[in-house]
Write a structure and sequence with these properties.
InterPro entries: PMF1/Nnf1. This protein has 137 residues and is an all-alpha fold. It has two domains: 48 residues; 51 residues. Helices cover 86% and strands 0% of the residues. It has five helices and no strands.
Length: 137
Amino acid sequence: SCSYQKFASCYHCFYKLQPQLTRSIYDQFISQLQSSVKEEIQEVKSEGNLEGLFDLLDKIVEEAKDREEPAWRPSGIPEQDVHSALVPYLLKHRSYLRQVLREKEEENRKVAESVLAGRNKIVELQQLIQAHRQAWQ
């Protein structure tokens, strides 16, 4: 859209009089336009921290390449979306809680056994004391 032919046709009278000058003006115009656009792009990049964001986006893309399962996308039905997001987490948490429960039950079983052993020891000691007392009497 910025061809020299279009530029020359816009300034047809001037082009007829001095075609080399028209070409020089066109070249300067294009060069200044390009530098202006580059400055604007650089300013937008620096204001929005786009380089950092693009680096982050590149990192995310690289990480996604190694992923085997597809990325999560919302279905448009909030109940399903919440369900699909929460159920795996809740199942994992339930598995963890069951493991903790098994450990605590095992710990409680061992403590109960030691309490019973202690009670049996107390009963034996009471019987021994009773036997000694009767022997002294």
